[in-house]
Design goal:
By secondary structure, the chain is an all-alpha fold. Helices cover 81% and strands 0% of the residues. The termini are far apart. The relative contact order is 0.10.
Length: 119
């Protein structure tokens, strides 16, 4: 039974992999009511909007994914990038600190945090 629930996300991932972002967004929007409490789905949707350079639309998906799974380093990394794209320095710093709390040896987050704090 669990396999049935994963199929729509697989299709969504395939659309992204194939570069069919408009179709992925439309398909994802149709799935959203059923997957609104699925951190992975929210991460995928946020990633699609980030790929198409729409950080403003990506952010709510990463925020929801964060609420559902605050310990996902990959999501926090992309959330940091979204905040950077929106010129939200304090939020970017917060994300970097969260990444480092989860993964103290994350050199990317450490370097970015240092740069942001020196601005």
């Amino acid at each position: 039974m669990a396999g049935l629930f994963k199929q729509p996300k697989r299709k969504l991932k395939k659309l992204v992999k194939d570069g069919e972002y408009d179709d992925a967004i439309a398909f994802g929007k149709s799935l959203e009511p059923d997957y609104s409490d699925d951190a992975d789905f929210m991460f995928i949707m946020g990633s699609i909007f980030f790929i198409v350079d729409d950080a403003k639309k990506a952010l709510p998906y990463f925020e929801k994914s964060f609420q559902l799974n605050p310990d996902d380093v990959e999501m926090l990394t992309l959330k940091t990038n979204v905040h950077l794209a929106l010129q939200q320095k304090d939020e970017s710093i917060d994300c970097c600190k969260r990444v480092l709390k989860l993964n103290p040896k994350n050199s990317e987050a450490e370097s970015l945090l240092e740069q942001l704090e020196n601005l």
